[in-house]
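stuck on this:

***
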Amino acid sequence: VQLQASGGGLVQPGGSLRLSCVASGKSLDYHAVAWFRQAPGKEREGVSSISHRGVTNYAASLEGRFTISRDNAKNTVYLQMNNLKPEDTAVYYCAAVWGMATLKQSLYDHWGQGTQVTVSS
């Protein structure tokens, strides 16, 4: 599975962005997909995951601002990010694994290239 993340950009605090993770080469139907992010000088952290059945999980720090979803017909997973804060600035990566959804990075074996999100006034 090849993953292509897109949708990042520069947004003001309080704004919104929707990231997309498009898969090619294989169907995502039976894959769990997750979003991770890495801020400058920090370790990469889990943001959200979605199982192949659509069960979602979020990092507690997000306070309900992000929503993950998937459209299997389009082989795409989305991350809707609302009320963005400067601390959300990071490179966002999507990853996929055939199996259980988790925010444990080491379990994912397919990774996209990352898309930059910058939240600044």
Remarks:
- The chain has no helices and eleven strands.
- The chain has a mean pLDDT of 95.
- Residues 8 and 117 are 5 Å apart (CA to CA).
